[in-house]
Amino acid sequence: MLYVGMKARFKTQCSECGGTIKVGQEITKSGEKWVHKKCAEDTGKGEVLP
Ligand SMILES: [Zn+2]
Q1: What are the extents of the domains in the chain?
Q2: Could you tell me if 21 and 8 are in contact, meaning their C-beta atoms sit under 8 angstroms apart?
Q3: What pLDDT does residue 21 have?
Q4: Residues with Cβ within 8 Å of residue 11, at least 6 apart in sequence
Q5: 37 C-alpha to center of ligand 1: Å?
Q6: Residue 21 C-alpha to ligand 1 middle, in angstroms?
Q7: What is the pTM of this model?
Q8: What's the 50 CA to ligand 1 centre distance in angstroms?
Q9: Which pLDDT belongs to residue 18?
Q10: 15-50, pLDDT tens digit by residue?
């Protein structure tokens, strides 16, 4: 599955695993929150490209 991903430009928290998202890590959006791309792939909660 292909997720909308980008590199984090700021430090934030992953709403899925609760871990820190560091600048430069691959992230994706889950609703209004940011999650690690890997977490989105694991849970299937990330935004998927049409
Ligand atoms: Zn995570």
Answers
A1: 6-43
A2: yes
A3: 97
A4: 20, 21, 22, 23
A5: 7
A6: 7
A7: 0.77
A8: 23
A9: 95
A10: 999 999 999 999 998 888 899 998 988 877 666 666
